[in-house]
Amino acid sequence: MKRLKDKVVIITGAAQGMGKMHAEKALSEGAKVVITDINKDLGLQTSQILGENAIFIQHDVANEEHWSNVISTVNEKWGRIDVLVNNAGITYSTPLEELSLASYMKIVNINQVSVFLGMKTVAETMKSQNAGAIINISSMNGLVGGAIGYTDTKFAVRGMTKAASRELSPFNIRVNSVHPGVIQTPMLEQEDVKEQVEQFKKTIPMRRVAQVEEVSNMVIFLASDEASYSTGAEFVIDGGLTAL
């Protein structure tokens, strides 16, 4: 049997990239998928490609009213919400002294506040079902240092995950965080960074970067009943980098 058969899954920032792969994997496991993204054109295009069991909702993840609209729309269409994947995120590679407060707060709002809002607004539905799974995409930089702003928020996601898991566990709602390392994306294949990436691979114990599917496989596991006793935990996909 497919692991997510008939489960309703919301994935933020899913019009492209890692979120899109999470959506494809969830659909292949029998889920009904809601992809949300700020990019309307790309989101609609992606949902059409994914087929009849996928819908798109335009969504500013830092906006509380948008979150309420997503939850009410999904409940109206499918009558339940089984899984929330807080995937949307951004980063800037800007030195501390050059990072403006406006840019810093944009990172905080998209990476951190959105996770709070997602968990807050989906909790009522999941409590009424006495079941649910929330998967917060953090980063290896939620465990070790990295870029200012990005690291701060990814540590916060890790902390919120633990706090929410303790509060929601009595309602059979599991909350876990996923911590990807370096992921193979088109950006890593650009000529100006290829050599840098090759050198960095030598510092990874497994001597390679992760494929996007490897992150999605972890997300599907945590969304499924196979992870029924896992909550408040960090699931690291970094080839051993943070073990050094």
SS-based class: alpha/beta
Number of helices: 7
**Count of folded domains:** 1
Low-pLDDT segments, ≥5 res = none
Share in β-strands: 15-25%
> Over the alpha carbons, how many angstroms does the gyration radius reach?
17 Å
The CATH topology assignment is Rossmann fold
CATH class: Alpha Beta
Distance between the first and last residues' Cα: 39 Å
Catalytic activity: (S)-acetoin + NAD(+) = diacetyl + NADH + H(+)
GO molecular function: diacetyl reductase ((S)-acetoin forming) (NAD+) activity
EC number: 1.1.1.304
Organism: Staphylococcus shinii
Describe the structure concisely for a colleague.
The protein has about 240 residues and is an alpha/beta fold. It has helices at about 15-30, 40-50, 65-80, 100-130, 150-170, 190-200, 210-225, and strands at about 10, 30-35, 55-60, 85, 130-135, 175-180, 235.
Describe this structure in words.
The chain is α/β, with parallel strands linked by helices and 244 residues long. It has one domain: Rossmann fold. The protein has seven helices and seven strands. β2 (32-37), α2 and β3 (54-58) form a beta-alpha-beta unit. α1 packs across α7. The relative contact order is 0.14. It is an enzyme of class 1 (oxidoreductase).
Itemize the secondary structure elements and their pairings:
Blueprint: E1 8-12, H1 17-28, E2 32-37, H2 40-50, E3 54-58, H3 64-78, E4 83-86, H4 101-129, E5 132-137, H5 150-168, E6 173-180, H6 191-201, H7 212-223, E7 234-237
Parallel strand pairs: 1-2, 1-4, 2-3, 4-5, 5-6, 6-7
Helix pairs in contact: 1-7, 3-4, 4-5
